[in-house]
Amino acid sequence: MMLWNTIDIADHQRAFLYVRDRFEGVLTPGRHRVSRLQGKVRVETFDITEGRFNHSKARFLLAQYAETLAPHLDKFELQDTEVGLLYRDGHLVDVLAPGSFLAAWKGTEAVNVVAVNIDTEFEIDPSVLALVGRGVKIGQSREVVKAVAYTEVPDEHVGLLQVNGKLEKTLAPGSYGFWKYNRSVVVKLLDLRLQAMEVGGQEILTKDRVSLRINLTGSYRVVDAEITALKLNDFAGFIYRELQLQLREAVGTQTLDALLADKDSLNVVIADGIRGKLSQYGIEMISVGVKDIILPGDMKVILNQVVEAQKEAEANLIKRREETQAMRSLHNTAKMMDNNPTLLRLKELEALERVTGRIDKISVYGGLEGVLNDLVKLRTS
């Protein structure tokens, strides 16, 4: 009957020795002999190259046998308001949640935990953010994903930092990280560039009760992101509805003829009405313009008839004016010829010239005198 247990421990191992289920000590690399006469012997073997001491009773063992385990293990314990940055040989490898407990083996690599107080200051230092941000191995850790709210604010944008539902501050373009432990962190981005808004297919009645379909366009930009975020949940929807209301109000106070005669006045009325309203919410309305005024089919026919009648009346008026002018000129010519026989004779010859220019052949009797004296005669009363 063997009275000894022989236990071999490799260089990368450590072992806990239990006799009658009581902790007796740590076995270092080498061969160990334990007497069986003491009672039941049990050994727990650990690979110290893993770094962490993962044991279900680690906290108890380190508290109960602190002097025995101190040469072999380091322990790190975080407060509820602290986050731990876990370094191995100077390299950041993971993040520890508040209240975490970590035990690490000595003798393989330098393990260190840097505690960061997040009770009041929860923004991540830029030097640490470069390691826990996206694209870095540590940034892909599951614990880091849960711990860090990472965001990038592009140029011509502003970030609105909300903590536990309260707006804390605005963020300029750049990259930011915040610890999410013990709080809710949300960063909302607002675009400060010029934005376009289309309001299409609005069926509106004019003052003279003509139904029109109008398409409107506008451009705006956010000038005070903090006021906009605090006062408006959906500022784009708010602008759309305000443009609708201003358009209906402006069209409903004008007749169809007035709208068709001066569309620019409609733009001015809408712009003046909406600028004052939006300025209260940190938004600047740059321009407003009516793109299309679409008439119903029967109204198009009526308007075409009206335009046709107007043009026909204008043509008749011009024709009558020209006839009157021609008659007046003819009357003046007749008066001049009545008092001047020579002028009358020249007019007769001019008429003769026009007549002869339109015929191929003319028979003349009486010679040139007959042509001059007998071909054209004026009856005197």
UniProtKB/TrEMBL annotation:
It is a single-pass membrane protein. Pfam families: Band_7. It is found in: Membrane. SMART domains: PHB. GO terms for cellular component: plasma membrane. Residues 148-307 form the Band domain. It comes from the Bacteria. Belongs to the band 7/mec-2 family. This is Slipin family protein. It comes from Exilibacterium tricleocarpae.
